[in-house]
Amino acid sequence: MNPSERFPISLGDAMYSLRAIRRVKLDPIPDADLRDILDAARQAPNGGNAQPWHFLVIQDEQLRWQFGELYREAWWAKRADQGIHGPGDIDPANKTTMSAMKLSDEIAAAPAIILVCAIAQGAGAMGSVIPSVQNMLLAARALGIGGTITTLHAVVDERVKELFGIPEEAQIVYAVPLGYPQGNFGPVQRKPLAEIASVDRWGNSIG
Ligand SMILES: Cc1cc2nc3c(=O)[nH]c(=O)nc-3n(C[C@H](O)[C@H](O)[C@H](O)COP(=O)(O)O)c2cc1C
Predict the structure, then answer these.
(1) Which domain holds residue 91?
(2) How far apart are CA 69 and CA 89, in angstroms?
(3) Residue 1 C-alpha to ligand 1 middle, in angstroms?
(4) Is 154 among the domain residues?
(5) Angle at CA of residue 58, ends 183 and 113, nearest 5°
(6) pLDDT at position 16 over 90
(7) Contact 100 CB / ligand 1 (< 6 Å)
(8) Are 176 and 132 a contacting pair, CB within 8 Å?
(9) Predicted model pTM
(10) CATH code (residue 48)
C-alpha cells in the first residue's frame, strides 16, 4: 500500500475536520478500506513496541445487534454512575450527550464496529492502544468514513467478552463504530490555546 495514494487528504485537513460522527449510513465499508484503516492503526506508537493491541471488527449484522443491546446497557450504566437515570434527566441543550444517547440506541446500525482491545490488563497496555485509535480515525477520515470513540462499562464486560470470544486477560478499551457520515465532517469546537497551554511554568500563557 502506498499511504499517500491510499489516504489522499492532507494530515491537516484530516485532523481539523475529525469531529465525532455518530450517525452513519447503512452502506457497508469495503473490506480493503477496513484493512487499510487497521493497517494505519498498527503504525501507532506504543510502549516498548510491544504492540499489546487487538482489533476485533464486528461486521455480522446479528452480532452487531447483540452488541448494540449490551452497548445501550453500558451507556445507561455509565449515566447511572453519574446520577442520571433516564432521558428526562438529560438536558436537551447538551448536544453531545443527546447525540451520544441516540448512538446508544443506534450503534448496531453502523456497518462496522471495532472493539479496540489491549491484550493484557493494566494501564500500561491500555495506554499503548490509545494512539492506535487516533490513527484509525484519521485513516477512516481520509477514506470518507466517520466514527467516534466510545467506552463500555464493567457491567457488560464479561458478556461482551463471551459474545466475541475475547480472552479473560484482555481488556476492551474502546468500541469504535464506523460508517459513511449522514452529516458532514467539519471543524471541532475546542478551548483556545491560551487556556490550555503554558510556557516554562504552568499558567504562563502561550498567548
Ligand atoms: C475517551 C473518550 C471516550 C468517549 N466516549 C464516548 C461515548 O461513550 N459515547 C460517545 O458518543 N462519544 C464518546 N466520545 C466522543 C466524545 O464525546 C467527543 O470526542 C467529544 O465530545 C468531542 O466531539 P467532537 O470531536 O465532535 O468535537 C469519547 C471520546 C473519548 C476521547
Answers:
(1) 22-182
(2) 21
(3) 30
(4) yes
(5) 30
(6) yes
(7) yes
(8) no
(9) 0.96
(10) 3.40.109.10
Mean pLDDT, rounded, for 93-100: 95
15 domain-assigned = no
- Measured CA to CA, the distance from residue 36 to residue 142 in angstroms comes to 11
Whether residue 149 contacts residue 182, with contact meaning beta carbons closer than 8 Å, is answered with no
Q: How many residues does the chain have?
A: 207
In a domain, 52, yes or no: yes
Answer yes or no: is 7 within a domain: no
Domain count, the chain: 1
Q: Is the CB of 103 under 6 A from ligand 1?
A: yes
Going from the C-alpha of 207 to that of each of 16, 49, 95, 192, 203, the distances in angstroms are 21, 36, 30, 10, 11
Average pLDDT in the chain:
96
β partners of residue 128: none
- Candidates 103, 150, 188: which one to mutate for ligand 1, based on the most atoms within 8 Å of Cβ? 150
Q: What is the pLDDT of residue 206?
A: 87
